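Dear support,

I submitted the protein below through the web form. The confirmation email said the job was done, but the results page showed an empty box. After a refresh the structure appeared. I'm attaching both so you can tell me whether what I see now is the final result or a partial one.
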Amino acid sequence: MADFAIPNSTFDHPHETELVIRRSRFLTSTVHVESLAQGRSFVDLLRQKYNDANHNCWACVGGVAGDSGQAAASDDGEPHGTAGKPMLQVLIHSGIGEVCVVVTRWFGGVKLGTGGLVRAYQDSVRENLATLPTKPKRILLKLKFTINYPERTVTERLLAAHEAEILHLDYGSEITFKIALANEEYDNFNQEMANLTNGRVKIDLI
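What the results page shows now:
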């Protein structure tokens, strides 16, 4: 699992861009969310804020970038398949996760047709994402392993060198560590632990 980008924008300060297409106004708002439920909360917020709009179409990836299993979308009254799904296709291939995008449309009196709507909603999302401020999301792995007491000091030094967080320690005949470790540190940490313990210690994902 690789690290990915997330929006550096909040409910209070969403990243907004606007397109006017054949007199219809398309306002795109994008924020960071940590779940689909948070995404739906943002949609509800915009529906209240822009209650004079004709549509608040949306797409959301509530987890890791590109994960369609944690994704949802809505046409919000536009013809089926012309808004939410096209918007979601752009999001899925953007490399950005934990993201919710809402395109608010005020109808300008000129019908765009099915193809025109798809292009309008996808272009709205693409333009917004092109200038979206992002920050990296570090994937943390939760790991468990058991060591002998004499190995504790060198193990804690190794953990500090890899910026691992000790979540819990169980003391028995041996010491069981539960830690959180950045994904990109795992391979080196695993190899160094094997070197220190002659391969005796097995590291398990929790």
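Response: this is the final, complete result; the empty box was a page-load delay. The radius of gyration is 23 Å.
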